[in-house]
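Researcher: Let's do a round of design. I'm pasting the structure tokens now; please hold your answer until I've finished.
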């Protein structure tokens, strides 16, 4: 089958051809009798062991890899890995693909990973094939083969017939290099985002007093007085949650009053992009659930327990029973309270306050008993503004990262025939 993509470099005009993966590459994995015991995983050595859990968005995170003895490396030359190797996970999280670069020592594969070796490098470019396998096409194909159920193991007999479209080698190289450049930009922005988040986590440790102390390690120079410990119940006018409207999901409407659920509270912000709505009549029956600007929202049940954010919108909103409203009295800053909840001290108190010490949830009395160190309102506001600026940087880099990922997904749909 010959075809052409929607989007391509102008100097190329020839049709593309389609080949089965087995026609252009071989696939090998560690076979059953070669499987390793956990006791054979070494913390250091001369022969690296790559596992599916070491895959990190198309790359190998060598810092998480274990090592094996030489005899295990020598056991099968087909799974000896080198720079330029293409790897696919066949167990666990299926279909993750990595392109090996920067490898500085001999390496082999653990069970659960295919080594895809190109048969003729004069005909197929490795970076092109990696990008094609990493695109959604492979898992879409695997999903089509999962008739009547879910594939839990990626068998070689599924991969062999996977169709790969190929232009001439020079066009493959240009596509591979171009998409690699976008991947590098994505990695750069991801690294910046991770660094900012790490900086924020570090400052949360330094700008709040340690246990038993009344001043923080890092402080704005104009403030010198000692901080005071207060319970949340002493500095709030409301600690309470909402409820699910009668009728459950049937009560949701296309437009109306926002109903904030636990999934809307994450990463220290309230995200209304996928919020649901209730009509005003239901809203009027849920007045105790109403949220106003400046309220601190805290998830109190489920896997997201402990996530918190400040509601900053002017428009009306309600919360359901999984979200607690913490409303500070005058003289206490919402962002400062939320930062305490997000700090290690806050997380420790949240974990200790859960019913039975498990993940059953928090009640309002337990939340009210949580204690934090408070400076005067002027310092609270300055600390809140400092971290709000960091949060804005995080949002900026996250948005840029999302845009790049979306841009690449669009290219994948248009640059492959």
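Researcher: That's everything. Go ahead.
Model: Designed sequence:
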């Amino acid at each position: 089958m010959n075809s052409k993509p929607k989007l391509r470099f102008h100097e190329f005009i020839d049709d593309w051809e389609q080949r089965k993966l087995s026609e252009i590459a071989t696939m090998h994995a560690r076979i059953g009798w070669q499987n390793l015991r956990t006791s054979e995983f070494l913390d250091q050595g001369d022969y690296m062991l790559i596992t599916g859990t070491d895959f990190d968005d198309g790359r190998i995170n060598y810092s998480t890899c274990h090592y094996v003895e030489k005899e295990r490396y020598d056991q099968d030359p087909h799974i000896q890995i080198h720079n330029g190797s293409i790897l696919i996970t066949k167990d666990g999280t299926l279909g993750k693909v990595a392109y090996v670069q920067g490898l500085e020592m001999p390496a082999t594969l653990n069970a659960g990973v295919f080594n895809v070796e190109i048969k003729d490098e004069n005909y197929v470019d490795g970076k092109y094939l990696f990008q094609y396998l990493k695109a959604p096409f492979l898992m879409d194909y695997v999903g089509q083969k999962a008739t009547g159920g879910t594939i839990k193991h990626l068998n070689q007999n599924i991969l062999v017939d996977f169709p790969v479209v190929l232009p001439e080698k020079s066009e493959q190289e240009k596509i591979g290099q171009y998409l690699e450049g976008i991947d590098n930009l994505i990695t750069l922005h991801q690294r910046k985002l991770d660094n900012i988040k790490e900086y924020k986590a570090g400052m949360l440790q330094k700008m709040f007093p340690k246990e038993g102390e009344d001043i923080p390690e890092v402080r704005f120079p104009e403030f010198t007085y000692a901080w005071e410990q207060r319970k949340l119940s002493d500095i709030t006018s409301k600690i309470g949650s909402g409820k699910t409207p009668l009728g459950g999901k049937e009560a949701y409407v296309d437009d109306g009053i926002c109903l904030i659920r636990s999934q809307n509270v994450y990463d220290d912000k309230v995200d209304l992009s996928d919020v649901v709505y209730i009509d005003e009549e239901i809203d009027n029956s849920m007045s105790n659930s109403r949220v106003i600007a400046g309220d601190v929202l805290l998830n109190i049940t489920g896997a997201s327990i402990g996530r918190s954010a400040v509601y900053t919108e002017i428009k009306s909103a309600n919360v359901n029973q999984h979200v607690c409203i913490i409303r500070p009295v005058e003289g206490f800053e919402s962002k400062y309270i939320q930062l305490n909840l997000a700090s290690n001290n806050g997380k420790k108190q949240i974990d200790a306050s859960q019913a039975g010490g498990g993940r059953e949830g928090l009640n309002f009395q337990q939340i009210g008993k949580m204690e934090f160190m408070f400076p005067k309102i002027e310092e609270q506001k300055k600390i809140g503004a400092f971290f709000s600026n960091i949060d804005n940087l995080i949002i900026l880099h996250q948005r840029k990262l999302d845009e790049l990922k979306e841009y690449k997904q669009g290219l994948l749909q248009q640059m492959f025939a």
